[in-house]
Specification:
This protein is α+β, with helices and mostly antiparallel strands and 215 residues long. It folds into two domains: 73 residues, no CATH class; 127 residues, 60s Ribosomal Protein L30, Chain: A (2-Layer Sandwich). It is built from seven helices and five strands, in the order αααββααβαβαβ. It has a five-stranded mixed sheet with strand order 1-2-5-3-4.
Length: 215
Amino acid sequence: MKRFIAVLLAAFMSTAAFAQTVDPHSKAKKGAAIGAVAGAIAGAIIHNNRGSGNAKRGAVIGGVVGAATGAIVGAMMDKQERELRQIEGVDVTRTSDDELRVTVNNEILFDFDSASLRSSSRDELREMADVFNKYRDTTINVQGHTDSTGSAAYNQRLSERRSSSVASYLENLGVRSSRVDAYGYGESKPKASNSTASGRQRNRRVEIYVRANNA
């Protein structure tokens, strides 16, 4: 048991050390590091159960397989991010959870107090759908947000209707419904102060979170 724990710790420390050396702005490299750590630990546990001498070998094999898988997933997310950034009118950022957050201002998508998509916004969503259909091994979470104008209950319903409109349109463009969820948060998650016109404009938005299925 002590030998197994020592091997497990060694595998974790070596792969964690590798993780510290990779470029933090590359999902491919970061994915490889995370995959190596997870794979090494899983491999050590599985092979240890098969015999006392197999834990170290399992850690090595698991680390290699995990790194390769993580690198593939990371590279896919890197490519998807670059393509989404080419779409006019959207802002793409990375989250601490290795998701892509695509933000679209509500003024682009909807008329005032409406949950019906503007015809002028459909080109942007069509381009997004093309990217999502190209990289199918992801889940897509559509979140609607409002400013604090009006009642909280009304804003909640409006945000839900708007996120559903975006999700439904993406599905109509071929994105599988099993990949897409829609949520409304009303005025509960402001990005800026609602005391100014510019702040309220920033708060009226739809955010689309893209996450790799095995991230």
